[in-house]
Amino acid sequence: MTEGFAVLDELAQWIGTNRASLTERGLQLASGTSPEDGRTKRSMWLDMEGAQRLGRLQLWDTGEAELELADVSTGEVKAQHLQVDTRADLERALTSLLDWAGAE
């Protein structure tokens, strides 16, 4: 866990707060967490799918993150490694995901 910032809890709260409004906008969301099986790092993921674009934010309790963005029509996939240590970092990652998947 990043010092003083419970990144997985913050992501879970964001998903809970925004799921309904994003679904109303036509986006499909799926999320999950790593199993409680003694792994040294816990993780959570959020998939977001729009009409032609989809993305995944995979986030670990250490603040490490992978942002993957795909365009269905072209097959283009972009991947980016991020470090999410603050609420602002998380908001930037989620905004990138939302902007990509929500674009028509």
Describe the structure.
The chain has 104 residues and is of the alpha+beta class. It has one domain. It contains 2 helices and 5 strands. A 5-stranded antiparallel beta sheet has the order 1-2-3-4-5, with helices on one face. The longest helix is centred in the N-terminal third of the chain and has 18 residues. The protein starts with 6 loop residues before the first helix and ends with a helix. The model has no long low-confidence stretch (mean pLDDT 92).
Percent range of helical residues: 25-40%
Lateral arrangement of strands in the main beta sheet = 1-2-3-4-5
Strand coverage percent: 25-35%
Q: How many strands, which pairing sense, and closed or not: the largest β-sheet?
A: 5 strands, antiparallel
Order of H and E elements: HEEEEEH
> First CA to last CA: what distance?
36 Å
Given helix and strand content, the structural type is alpha+beta
What is the mean predicted local confidence, pLDDT? 92
Number of strands: 5
* Shape, per Cα inertia axes: globular
State Rg.
14 Å
Poorly predicted spans: none
Number of domains: 1
Number of helices: 2
Topology:
Layout: H1 7-24, E1 28-33, E2 43-49, E3 53-60, E4 64-71, E5 77-83, H2 87-102
Antiparallel strand pairs: 1-2, 2-3, 3-4, 4-5
